[in-house]
Amino acid sequence: MSVGLCARTRPEQPAGDREEDETGAGRRVLTASVDVAHAPEVDAFTAAVVERFGRVDLWVNNAGVLEPIGPLAGADPDALRRHIDTNVLGVLHGSRAFAQHVRSRPGGGVLVNMSSGAAVEPYEGWAAYCASKAAVDMVTAVVAREEHAVGLRAYALSPGLVDTDMQALIRSTPATDFPRVGRFLRAHEQGDLNSAASVAEFILDHCVDGAAPVDGAAPRERTDGLEAVRVRVPDGTRRR
Q1: Which residues are catalytic?
Q2: Does domain 34-237 have CATH number 3.40.630.10?
Q3: Secondary structure of the chain in the HEC alphabet?
Q4: Is the pLDDT of residue 150 over 90?
Q5: Domain range summary for the chain, segments of one domain joined by +
Q6: What is this structure's pTM?
């Protein structure tokens, strides 16, 4: 696979890896620093990836933040705006860029927008996060309808509890701000977390190569409504 990767910052590359990156793996990997809240940066990244590799077949909108955490009554308005800029606008910009690209060339494509169980279950202290992930689900459902004719398959993927820095942030939050923190502490203590690698494998195996089951039906059989796009990584992948 050829891969285009963007994040807020680009990691420094060890000097010993530079030659190999330029002559070997670097031919298959393109990295960039991108603020997904700014559409021109997302569009420029898309153009760079297409120029390098010719086309994009899988697009994953993974950028997301959790803060501010705590009762909405005490939330800072600027923090709320930054949250929505990343979690909602970022997904809108990425989905738009990919849909435009799929329309521009033959063949379909797969869009995966990272969602959460918080999209459908209210968590006290997560007003912004729950709202943003509910928005992600609806954006995905709309794109699935709009782009069905050009072969774009869209999924709002709930990855379960994944062993990332976000989980560490949740566990460090006092119960006064997040009353359900105990559930996440217990999951960590029991080793009951998905790995990022297992989620990536699920995307490749079920969303790209297969037809991920969505509420008991294959996505190609259900083309409208939220039930047609919501997918959850099974609990059985957590210890892989």
Answers
A1: 129
A2: no
A3: CCEEEEECCCCCCCHHHHHHHHHCHHHCEEEEECCCCCHHHHHHHHHHHHHHHCCCCEEEECCCCCCCCCCHHHCCHHHHHHHHHHHHHHHHHHHHHHHHHHHHCCCCEEEEEECCHHHCCCCCCCHHHHHHHHHHHHHHHHHHHHCHHHCEEEEEEECCCECCHHHHHHHCCCCCCCCCHHHHHHHHHCCCCECHHHHHHHHHHHHHCCCCCECCECHHHCCCCHHHCEEECCHHHCCC
A4: yes
A5: 1-33, 34-237
A6: 0.86
